[in-house]
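USER:
Before I trust my own judgement here, I would like a peer's view. Write it directly below this note and I will take it from there.

ASSISTANT:
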Amino acid sequence: MQALIDKLETELEDDIARVEAISVACAMYEVISIGTSVTGLYSELFTLLLKLVSCTLGQKMPTSSWSRRRHVMQQGEQQQIPDPCRLSTATLRCLQAQAMREGLAKESDEGDNLWTLLSSPSTHHIGVCSLARSMAVWQHGVILDIMEQLLSSLTSSSESYRITGTAFFSELMKEPILWKHGNLRDVLILMDQSAWDSNATLRQMAIRGLGNTASGAPHKVKKHKQLMLESIIRGLYHLARTEVVCESLKALKQILNLLTDRDVSFYFKEIVLQTRTFFEDEQDDVRLTAIFLFEDLASLTGRRWKIFFAEEIKKSLISFLLHLWDPNPKIGVACRDVLMVCIPFLGLQELYGVLDHLLDQDLPRVRDFYRQFCVKLAKKSQEILWILHTHSFTFFTSSWEVIRSAAVKLTDAIILNLTSQYVELLDREQLITRLQALRRDPCIRVQRAAEAALQTLLRRCKETSIPL
């Protein structure tokens, strides 16, 4: 086996998989599959085979090597187009199965799907993260050896191998025991550099690693807070790739939990403004994480940003109120929680009683909830009620039927509770036009809500003697 390891290492020089590397992997498979112990050589075998998987991603098998793969590929696969990455993955899978029998690794949280993820260029990084989580943390010596051998991957000339290494280390960053005995301090610096890389997947994995440092080495977050915050916040501007944005939001949430308002003060305004832009994102995970982060930011305002944050809450209130009925129930719960945290900034503690109804096993009807909410709000602040109205039009064209319906029902409740002075300020022509358009909405709930809101508007105008 040692001879095969040496041969494979030679075939993977310069982080490029040469033709003979596939033949060596075939031979390794046959040796391991008969139950040969891997305990003494596991670290070397694992890192080399993972490197081979990485370096063969998306490649095609040379015709000359086709016959050599037959023993490795499972029955039923041999008629498919030759794929060296799948062959490499099969050998790594065989190694991991033997390692589990010897107590060197544990079952992956992805199960058998791990190997499909690992061998596809689009999901390889997800598979690597799962593979890293399957490392047996109690085997300190084994993992430390793997870490030492994989460190060079973070500066490899092969972009694919850099992604593999960064994804693997991103999961290890959360383990305190590895921070204590490993070389993760060096990894942290390299992760920070990769967080600025032009490759979106590499950035995502690097940002995940920075965020996971909060679990593995909280003291490092405090020590390198400026470096880490700047790299992660930068990820919020990568609008073309939502996975980078979502990873940045999650990493910020992890890191901010360890910092004080004074630590964050310089970046607070930027984080708040960027976080707010994702409340309406189409991806559930992005919306949910942005709302969670906004809630955490409430505890970091300090004196300097308290007034600013209150103004941002006023602008965000419409999103939180409408997404109480989000298609994803987790987002509805998150909106209820963030409202509970935010309303004291506006001096609206009287609204706690209305929000408490959202804790009931049976949620209140949307129309009833909004009417109760607006009745209370109208008595306390007509200004905020008006702000809710001015921000509601955007949601009339939401892609979610439930949000369009909720927006119209909230508009109905607002109109019902505005004072005559504010009713006069309504752009009645525009509002009537929009509500009439919603009467032809494909969703029957939206049609009925629009009709009811239109009647409320006409009645209020009549009551205040305002011509239409």
